[in-house]
Amino acid sequence: MIQVDATRFIALASSIHIRTKIQLEEAVARLPIQKVRDLVVAAARTYPTFMGFIRDEVNKLDAEHAAKVVDLDYHSKTAWRALNVEYSKLNARRQYDQSWEALETVNAYFKAIRKACPQSASFGTKKSGLETCRKIGKTICLSNGVVADEVRKSFQWDNALEETMMGIARTLTQDERDRLMRDEFGDKLEELVSNSRTYCVLPEISEVLDLMRGDVESNETTMKVIYLDDEEDEDQD
């Protein structure tokens, strides 16, 4: 990161006749976003009051995250469509060719789910993220057709689903994990583990189950964490 002398920058800003709020906004808008970030960090290091402003804004964002429940279930519905409907009218050869696109679509949903569930997210949002991943996992196991078969083969080694679930689970306390496991989520997660063994996919899903049960410490797990219409299959639930 570029080191910037905040005092020198402020003096420079004054010397180029930034006199009004509008002029200041226009000047800042011209700067690359990374340069703005560098200047903000430099100013915060120089001026404790400015650091306080930043801390207050971050706390506000965390409070908003903690109070808001985001329903992520639509990702499971669109993932089901990608594997079962989107390419179903194509011939077998073209379905095979499009299977990589379907795989990329599903993995993009995992990234979006993980991004929606940071440490500061509400329990309800994290619950939705885990449940949505579980539903997508069931879709991967049970869907039929050329596209579904090819995607399922990829998940014999691709652990994007497990990494996403593990990442979310690590942000929960063990009490919160126990609360989820006492709900129907616990039984359905065990069902997913069983299906994964039947179809030889999702190779690390049992590690997610172990963490949720409290059989392993969350900080001892070595898995990496990544940051991946009305029609719905009856197996979604």
DSSP summary, beta strand count: 0
User: Percent of residues in beta strands?
Assistant: under 5%
Which geometry do the CA atoms define?
A: globular
Number of helices: 12
Distance between the termini: 47 Å
Unreliably modeled segments:
220-234
The assembly state of the depicted protein chains is single chain
How would you characterize the largest beta sheet? none
Rg from alpha-carbon coordinates: 23 Å
Query: How confident is the prediction overall: mean pLDDT?
Result: 86
Written as H for each helix and E for each strand, in order along the chain, the element string is HHHHHHHHHHHH
Structural class: mainly alpha
Query: Portion of residues in helices?
Result: 55-70%
Summarize the structure.
The chain has 237 residues and is mainly α. The protein has helices at residues 6-15, 21-29, 33-46, 48-67, 74-84, 92-115, 123-142, 146-154, 160-170, 174-182, 184-199, 205-213.
Can you describe this structure?
The protein has 237 residues and is mostly helical. The chain is 68% helix and 0% strand. It is built from twelve helices and no strands. Helix 5 (74-84) packs antiparallel against helix 6 (92-115), helix 6 packs across helix 8 and helix 7 runs parallel beside helix 11 (184-199). The longest helix has 24 residues, at 92-115. Mean pLDDT is 86; it is low at 220-234.
Please render the helix and strand layout as text.
Layout (H helix, E strand, L loop, with lengths): L5 H10 L5 H9 L3 H14 L1 H20 L6 H11 L7 H24 L7 H20 L3 H9 L5 H11 L3 H9 L1 H16 L5 H9 L24
Helix pairs in contact: 3-4, 5-6, 5-7, 6-7, 6-8, 6-9, 7-9, 7-11, 9-12
